[in-house]
Amino acid sequence: MSPKKVTIIGSGNWGSAIARIVGSTTKSFPDEFDPTVRMWVFEEIVNGEKLSEVINNRHENIKYLPGKVLPNNVVAVTDLVESCEGSNVLVFVVPHQFVKGICEKLVGKIPADTQAISLIKGISFDKTNQGVSTEKRGGLKLISEEIKEILKIEVSVLMGANLAPEVANDNFCEATIGCKRKAEDGPLLKKLFHTDNFRINVVEDAHTVELCGALKNVVACAAGFTDGLGYGDNTKAAVIRLGLMETTKFVEHYYPGSNLQTFFESCGIADLITTCYGGRNRKVCEAFVKTGKSMAEVEKELLNGQSAQGPLTAEEVYLMMHKTGLDAKFPLFTAVHKICAGEMKPAELVDCLRNHPEHM
Ligand SMILES: NC(=O)C1=CN([C@@H]2O[C@H](COP(=O)(O)OP(=O)(O)OC[C@H]3O[C@@H](n4cnc5c(N)ncnc54)[C@H](O)[C@@H]3O)[C@@H](O)[C@H]2O)C=CC1
Ligand SMILES: O=C(CO)COP(=O)(O)O
């Protein structure tokens, strides 16, 4: 079998950090992988230069991962279709609001045997709510399902406690790959990501892995709010625990049959911890409370073009829960949306936690 060609679709903070890993593993396994990794770059001008040219000439993403060298076998390509042409493995890693538009541009261009893996933490809310599967779920669609539906290819997921700057520093961490066809797709995907400092477990319970990744961003917003209100670590621990309980209940309701063990993988409790202490969602939500500025303003001021996915995910989760009449069962998720939307004061969050069904 000829070596597989890999394309990374996305070049933000996480996309660039993962490019360091994928650039290295593809070079290490020449029998399995073509060493040239194409990375689709959403072109922009940074300090008067095209970002793609800076990446190709200086091997650094000066906007989204400054100060870190990208392997020279990672090649920035600005034409999306060209970046995927002939690729056997597609790594999706863009903020989730851009997935649909990206996939639609690729329709008819991706062979059915292409393997895809999504590193995207978010969900898709289908407002039309058509189709048996989304109707049952009040419009909920996983990002992997959205990609699969549009491109007709199998999609695995990779989620974990992986703050991109720390991964880019090569600090030790773990991640979980969720693969419905574990025996078929798992070994190659593990080879693509597993390194001494980025340890991969592959599990079959892919829906749970993906939902853990999406929902922890909502919990991180709650942690940011309590930080902004000046509460300490005990409150944050309660937020993490109640967030985990809501996550397990959410998964059980919308995707029944999950394996409890999956919540103990890196994608579960570990990602909740790291994001609630060190993530961007936590940071912008803390600033939202402390400054009284809008979420869009604090995101712009603090993240330099990066994106906090929690507020958007909270809205999508809320709309869907509301439609299926379940919002009262998920007071933390509901409160995060209402606070982000300006419908509830941040200080009221603790009342929601105090009256949580877990305490009844
Ligand atoms: N940054 C992190 O620490 C981690 C992020 N993730 C997840 O990975 C996904 C991607 O996150 P990041 O790489 O951090 O992205 P990011 O937050 O750095 O977002 C910026 C990226 O969005 C792109 N972009 C802006 N406008 C666009 C448009 N109209 N169309 C397409 N792309 C556009 C920019 O070019 C840039 O590549 C998210 O779902 C995030 O939750 C997962 C693990 C860690
Ligand atoms: O997913 C992440 C860590 O695993 C990153 O979280 P933030 O998007 O909140 O920075």
What's this, in brief?
The protein is α/β, with parallel strands linked by helices. 49% of the residues lie in helices and 15% in strands.
Cα gyration radius (Å): 20 Å
Low-confidence stretches: none
- Strand order, biggest sheet? 5-2-1-6-7-10-11-12
Helix share, percent:
40-55%
Task: Count structural domains.
Answer: 2
CATH architecture of the largest domain: 3-Layer(aba) Sandwich
Mean pLDDT: 96
Question: How is this structure best described in words?
Answer:
With 360 residues, this protein is of the alpha/beta class. It folds into two domains: 4-207, 3-Layer(aba) Sandwich (Rossmann fold); 208-359, N-(1-d-carboxylethyl)-l-norvaline Dehydrogenase, domain 2, CATH 1.10.1040. Helix content is 49%, strand content 15%. The protein has helices spanning 13-28, 51-58, 80-84, 99-106, 132-136, 143-151, 164-168, 182-193, 206-228, 233-254, 266-278, 280-291, 295-303, 310-323, 331-340, 349-354, and strands at 4-9, 33-40, 45-46, 49-50, 74-77, 89-92, 115-118, 123-125, 140-142, 155-159, 173-178, 198-203. The strands form three sheets. An eight-stranded mixed sheet has the order 5-2-1-6-7-10-11-12, with helices on both faces. Strands 3-4 form a two-stranded antiparallel ribbon. β6, α4 (99-106) and β7 (115-118) form a beta-alpha-beta unit. α9 packs across α15. The protein starts with a strand and ends in a 6-residue tail after the last helix. 51% of the residues are buried. Residues 10-15, 42, 64, 93-96, 98, 119-122, 162-164, 305-307, 309 line the site of 1,4-dihydronicotinamide adenine dinucleotide. 1,4-dihydronicotinamide adenine dinucleotide binds next to α1.
